[in-house]
Design brief:
heterodimer, A: 484 residues, alpha+beta, Arc Repressor Mutant, subunit A, 8-stranded mixed β-sheet, 3-stranded antiparallel β-sheet, 16 strands, 19% strand, elongated, B: 95 residues, mainly alpha, Histone, subunit A, two-stranded antiparallel sheet, 3 helices, 3 strands, 39% helix, flat, Asn/Gln_amidotransferase (chain A), GatB_Yqey_C_2 (chain A), ligase (chain A), ATP-binding (chain A)
Chain lengths: 484, 95
Amino acid sequence: MMQWETVIGLEVHVQLATKSKIFSGASTAFGAEPNSQACAVDLGLPGVLPVLNEAAVAMAVKFGLGINAEIPEVSVFDRKNYFYPDLPKGYQTSQMYHPIVGAGEVEISLDDGATKRIRVHHAHLEEDAGKSLHEDYHGMTGIDLNRAGTPLLEIVSEPDMRSAKEAAAYLKAIHAIVTYLGISDGNMAEGSMRCDVNVSVRPKGQEAFGTRAEVKNVNSFRFVERAIAYEVERQIELIEDGGTVVQETRLFDPEADETRSMRTKEEANDYRYFPCPDLLPVVLDRAYVDHLRSTLPELPAEKRARFEGELGLSAYDASVLASSRAMAEYFEAVKDACGDAKQAANWVQGELSGALNRESLSIEQSPVSAKQLGELITRVLDDTINGKAAKQVFQALWNGEGDSADAIIDAKGLKQVTDSGAIEAMIDQVIADSPVQVAQYRDAEPDKRGKMIGYFVGQVMKASRGTANPQQVNALLKEKLDQA
Amino acid sequence: MALEPSDVQRAAHLARLAMNDADATGYVDDLGRILAMVDQLQEVDTDGVAPLAHPLDTTQRLRADEVTERDQRDHFQRVAPAVENGLYLVPRVVE
């Protein structure tokens, strides 16, 4: 049985979060009435000229700095020529030969907490096309050009990924970087991040790459894994059955969970690129790039290292908590409020993430604020409440039954009983009420007793309505039961 | 490089220009002379000369990221052959 290795490269298109388009002053807001944000430049009317948006340049450069890429002093826009109705000019303004961002690298983290570096070949600026609507307009196609001219950063990786999981991790890492930098909203459902996947297989140990297929329309983290899994299986089967993989463009169909060959005309890839005469070379001086560098926030890889190194979190915890800017900020706010990084990590990844997942909410939508959660953890740390009561308080905060942990603790009477006199009284009562169990306990071998004590702990906790300090209950019970 | 009529037809098709065979044969000569001139230029030693992206010796001006365009859809769509629900209608394209 032949062992196969998968080779994957990704082209990720990121919509940049500018207010206006890359070459015109039309708005980029999502969801507007069709063609209400398509101006004369976007429509490619005769006589118009593009003027480059400074914010799009700044965002591209920030991305480059964020992946330690070389930022060339000069970049040039080229025309990519093809005809399609949602591209009224007959060419897409892009960057073929002198992209704005040179080679860099992205660190991805894998499930086992290990990290791997994926090289980025380059990233270039270009304009998005409009949208074609194929539902029946009397046998015609409807064209909405609101999206035409929206700035895109196309990030092209080297073929450095070796599994669907690595590809998904890479896409997540890119998502994290662009959202940390605030250069894109990263909303995949609205098409702010789109992905084409190049997949090939080769016998393990072979150095030469196999023939690749390009899979388009892979627009979620989940689809990336599924499209690659399907494509790898298809290619291996094809080769093992004596066939050969042809270099082609395929479309991922998420409903059928398969990729299909796109009928592409033979000249489809003859784009006849040439420098755009309407745009001059873009020259970035060092001071401008240095200024942008000084505005960079702490990025996911640095955050992960700090969470692990300074805060003492596990590699896994650090990687999950640093994975998105919103998650990291929430965690740090909880940590600052309670002063205990490990407890903060446990609560954010345990109780909070569980509740968010159950209700399909993002962390930005959490009904429990970081401050509220931090105060709750503080009350566990200072022994005001025990772990069981803490979960009740969390649930109450989640349900909006009170503004703060303290208010809920008071209202529900959840304050932990640590007064040993009170606990002893409850224990005495339980012992008096359970003569059979007490006799069994005392007849048992000492090594069996550990398990049997659970019954009494349960009774005492019940009598205290969950407010007794469990460690104290355990210790005092053991003392009293063992002394007879 | 010698041009064939099929090269001219291919270039015409990529540019969506209709061309009959007689015209194509004529362009083989016209374009051929342009290419001959390019061949002559190729003989110049350009080692160490950076390709020129633009004849003007100046650089791209950048504009501030501000929305300056208002909605002029109705105005623009007055010249469109067919519109519906705000969309431009074009002959059906299905990939």
